[in-house]
Amino acid sequence: MQSSNHRLRDMEQHHPLLAAGTDVEAGSLGTGVIVGGPNAGHSAGNRTVWFIQDSCGMVCATMTWFLVLYAEFVVNFVMLLPAKNFWYSLLNGATFNSLAVLALASHLRTMLTDPGAVPKGNATKEYMESLQLKPGEVIYKCPKCCSIKPERAHHCSICKRCIRKMDHHCPWVNNCVGEKNQRFFVLFTMYIALISAHALGLSGMHFFTCIKVQWNECSDFSPGVSVLLLIFLCLEAILFLTFTAVMFGTQIHSICNDETEIERLKNEKPTWERHMRWDGMKSVFGGPPSLLWCNPFTGLRLRRLLVVTQGRRGGSEFSV
Predict the structure, then answer these.
(1) Contact, 127 vs 6, CB < 8 A?
(2) CB–CB of 185/261 below 8 Å?
(3) Cys-Cys link to 117, which of 40, 44, 161, 288 (CB 3.0-4.6 A)?
(4) Contact of 180 with 115, CB cutoff 8 Å
(5) What are the CA-CA distances from residue 177 to residues 27, 154, 156, 224, 231 (Å)?
(6) Angle of CA points 186, 259, 239, to nearest 5°
(7) Which whole-number Å values give the CA distances from 126 to 2, 136, 177, 246, in the listed order?
(8) CA end-to-end span of the chain, whole Å?
(9) 142 belongs to the catalytic site
(10) What are phi and psi of 317, to 5 degrees?
(11) Which of 26, 24, 39, 186 is nearest to 109 (CA)?
C-alpha cells in the first residue's frame, strides 16, 4: 500500500517512527481504554480485564498460586501455630502472610494488566493518511496482526499481538512482560524471592527445634507427615528463590540499562533516547523513589474490576 506521502513496509524488525506513548484512533490502549475481543477499539466506558487464553499459561499460573498457598499452609499450620512462643508465631506469621499477599497481588496485576498491546488492524490507508507523514517517510507494519509497529514493539506469538517494549512472555504469569506491567512482574519476583527465603529460614529453625524435643511436641501432624511437608517446602523454596532472584536481578539490570531482554538477545542498537539507572527505574515504577514502588495495589481502581461481562470473545484474550 503506497501513496505519494508515505510508504508501508511489512517487516518484523522496525525503526522508530511512532513514539512509545502514541495512541491510535479508536484502538488507543492508553490508561482506561480496554483490550478484549477480536477488535482492539473500544470506548473508554467498556472496561474489561486483559486475560490471555493460553492453556500452558493458565496451568502455570494455577500452579504458582497452588505452590504459594501450599507454602502458607505449611508455614502456618505445621510450624507457627503449634509453636510455644506466641510472639515468634505472631511476628513471623504476620511477615510471611503479608509478603505472600503482596506476591499474589503482584501476580494478578501482572497477569491481568495489558502489557502494552498495539491495536490490531490499524494499518489502514485512512489511518496512515491521518498521520501526516513526511514524503518518503517509512512506517512498518506487522504482517501477523496487521498493526503499525511503534518503536521497540515486538510481536508475541502467544498473545497474538505486538507488545510495546516487550521483554519476554512468561507462562508463570500467563502474559507478556511489557511497558505497562513490568513493574508488577518485578514486584512479583521480589516478593516470591522474599517469602522463599523466609520459608527456608523458618524450616531450618523448625528442624533445629524439633531435633531437641519430641516431634510430636513440634507439630499437630505426625512426625512422618511433618517431615515430608517440610522437605517439599524446602525444595520448593530453593527452586523459587533461585529462579526469582535471578529474574529479579536481570529485570533490574534491563531497566537500569533501558534494554529489554529481546533487544539484548537480538543485539539491537538503540535508536531511542535511553533512560539510564534511576531515570529508567522512575520511568517503570513512576515518580521518585518511595514505598509506593513496592505497592502492587498502586493505581488500582475497583470500578475497573466490577464490570458486567461483555460476552465478546475472540482471539487469544477475552472481555470480563
Answers:
(1) no
(2) no
(3) 161
(4) yes
(5) 20, 11, 11, 42, 32
(6) 40
(7) 12, 17, 31, 46
(8) 36
(9) no
(10) -130, 160
(11) 186
Q: For residue range 200-258, what is the model confidence (pLDDT) as tens digits? A: 999 999 988 888 777 767 777 888 888 899 999 999 999 999 999 999 999 999 888 88
271 grid coordinates: 535508536
Burial of residue 28, with CB atoms counted within 10 A of its CB: 0-12 exposed, 13-18 middle, 19 or more buried: middle
Instruction: Calculate ∠ Cα 205-210-215, nearest 5°.
Output: 145
Q: Are 165 and 252 in contact (CB under 8 A)?
A: no
Residue 320 corresponds to which amino acid? Answer: V
- Residues whose CB falls within 8 Å of the CB of residue 210, separated by 6 or more in sequence, listed in order: 217, 218, 219, 226
Strands 153-156 and 161-164: antiparallel
User: Is 75 exposed, middle or buried (CB count within 10 Å of its CB: 0-12, 13-18, 19+)?
Assistant: buried
Q: Which position has the grid cell 517503570?
A: 284
Contacting residues for 199 by C-beta, under 8 A, at least 6 apart = 71, 74, 75, 96, 233, 234, 236, 237
Q: Select which of 159, 170, 210, 218 is catalytic.
A: 170
Here the cell at position 95 is 511477615
Nearest alpha carbon to residue 129 among 8, 304, 260: 8
Give the cell for residue 102: 503482596
CA 67: distance to chain centroid? 18
Q: What is the pLDDT of residues 268-315, one digit of tens each?
A: 776 666 666 788 788 888 878 888 889 999 877 655 555 434 444 444
Tally of CB atoms within 10 A around 249? 12
d(CA 139, CA 129): 12
Q: What is the pTM of this model?
A: 0.79
φ, ψ (nearest 5 deg) of residue 143: -70, -10
